[in-house]
Amino acid sequence: MPNTGFPTQGPTLRELGEKEVIRRITHAAPSAVNGDDAAVLYPASPNSRVVATTDMLVEGRHFRRDLTTPRLLGRRAVTQNFADVEAMGARPIAVLLSLSAPMDLPVDVLTEFAGGIAEEIDGYAAELVGGDVTAGQNLVISITAIGSLGGNRPPLTLDGARAGQQVIAHGAIGYSAAGLALLESGLELPDEFAPLIEGFQTPTIRPGSGVVARSAGASSMTDNSDGLIVDISTLAERSRVNIDLDKEAIAPDELLLAAGELVGIDPWKWVLEGGEDHTLMGTIHGEAPVGFRVIGQVAKDSKDHKSNGERAGVVTVDGQPPAFRQGWESFA
Amino acid sequence: MPNTGFPTQGPTLRELGEKEVIRRITHAAPSAVNGDDAAVLYPASPNSRVVATTDMLVEGRHFRRDLTTPRLLGRRAVTQNFADVEAMGARPIAVLLSLSAPMDLPVDVLTEFAGGIAEEIDGYAAELVGGDVTAGQNLVISITAIGSLGGNRPPLTLDGARAGQQVIAHGAIGYSAAGLALLESGLELPDEFAPLIEGFQTPTIRPGSGVVARSAGASSMTDNSDGLIVDISTLAERSRVNIDLDKEAIAPDELLLAAGELVGIDPWKWVLEGGEDHTLMGTIHGEAPVGFRVIGQVAKDSKDHKSNGERAGVVTVDGQPPAFRQGWESFA
Fold first, then answer.
1. Longest dimension (CA), chain A
2. How many A/B residue pairs have CB atoms within 8 Å?
3. Alpha helices for A160-227 (secondary structure H)
4. Residue A205 near residue A170 (C-beta atoms within 8 A)
């Protein structure tokens, strides 16, 4: 059965006080540059620019204590922010962590969470360089990721897709939504579904994938966070191109089909609307870079469509409107 | 009477949806680099390092709707983060904003807040470059500030105070706590107290003060955020020195004395424990840089104290233990 649940025992934040809580968090995620008014970072290369992004995780809305662990949540929080850094073609170098938590929360929740952050950023040689802890009604976590963009090529932006390029992707699509549905079903889950549970609890990207894609000549990139169709549509709209996805290339695999059968959900819904896989998706002329596969094409005549007054930003699957196309909405 | 209260009318977050809410926020605080997976920043000078810091503001704990306005709160949120950047001797260049808010919140609260951010960062030529909005039980705001540290001098760190230096400060001390006490008193407040109310609602630092101090040869710096004695003690402990503050230089001025009389509080408590003025405080050999004044001395023989086994990190006022020495504690 999956690993879930938060620690409920041990000393609380109120019992330990702010100083000791911070000491334990920084012990769980050590850093040479943490502990002053602000962290000083030394970007990697002489030519480098700085990349920054932030995400907030609210208990009950973005995570539930019964469906994950603090350690897994810490890892996921890193991935969802680092995916945004990698999606610029940049290298993640640092994380800042702010959180509010009820005063009766066992400190182990926070140290486990920080331990998960440390575990995940280690694969990037990044550091937790600063943060803030405060009391609040419920657990709210804010992560800011900072990256370094070296070299002379432009960043991989949402408006960088060009007519005639291939659409590429790196990693699972639909696994996170499937894993969540499996956990929410409350059913006894056979071990074979572990990759889906992991896809939900700790989606991962191979560190450096965005850098590899940029070096290989990709011109646009984003990640599958709000839903495949929604995110690819944003890319298409911002680039003023139309995109057609290959049905076969994104079709649910056997694991997704089996999970769909178990819980009675069409797995295409997970693929097209799921999000939260944080799989990097971009566009490139020619072959897919190492680690990426082709999942579609940017229409050759997107610019003509535009000049003819037709709407650019249309996303199809094998030329047809996608069967599912909703995405994450923060205020619904 | 002071300007307080949050908008209670107009379309809510739920009614408008995430996209429109983000559109209105970015309209209130426009930026050329916002709107992609992550923001790309171009640090100012060839030699520059990046400085980063973050702070979280929780409704009911760090602010109350009846004691400020969203616009003033936005300005204060910038100052408290930029003060940490300036306290490294760096120049603030960017802000990221994450927030969770109840879905029935009028969007004007957020656009006013973003407008306040835009107003304050304008004085620094900085930009709001990214963020995240999400639903949550209560209003929780997380700000990350990014700065640029140019040149060859080291940053102004907490461990940089040296024996024989002067302690310098820039701006009000105790005004924020006094302003809060005045507002909490519920009394009719004469206009003369406006500087104290402003000190609480919108403490400010003169942009570039940290850079000036670093150029002039300051070696350590922090800001008055948790309380004068607590923050100076942190500086003294981390630098392993003892610090004596000049009673006359920090004594409550006539305004603080009058406010203390009105609400029946010893104004020394505001000066010594108050915090949240975000006044920059540091140490330097020789004269105070432009805009700073001398408020104390680093003991000449701090190192001897240490080698004699005596405890370094002691802060006194005219050689005596301070009358008040508590500070902010997040979990109390």
1. 68
2. 224
3. 175-185, 194-201, 209-215
4. yes
Q: Does B52 touch chain A (CB under 8 A)?
A: yes
Helices assigned H by DSSP within chain B: 13-28, 70-86, 107-122, 175-185, 194-201, 209-215, 228-239, 247-250, 254-263, 267-273, 302-307
pTM summary value = 0.92
Distance CA B229, CA B326 (A): 8
Annotated binding residues of B for ATP, written as ranges, equal 131-132, 225
User: Closest chain A residue to B53 measured between Cα atoms?
Assistant: A38
- The pLDDT tens digits along chain B (332 residues) read 688 999 999 999 999 999 999 999 999 998 877 778 889 887 656 668 899 999 999 999 999 999 999 999 999 999 999 999 999 999 999 999 999 999 999 999 999 999 999 999 999 999 999 999 999 999 999 999 999 998 889 999 999 999 999 999 999 999 999 999 999 999 999 999 999 999 999 999 999 999 999 999 999 999 999 999 999 999 999 999 999 999 999 999 999 999 999 999 999 999 999 999 999 999 999 999 999 999 999 998 755 555 555 568 999 999 999 988 887 777 77
Asked whether the beta carbons of B249 and B294 are under 8 A apart, the reply is yes
On whether any CB of chain B is under 8 Å from the CB of A152, the answer is no
**Complex ipTM > 0.95:** no
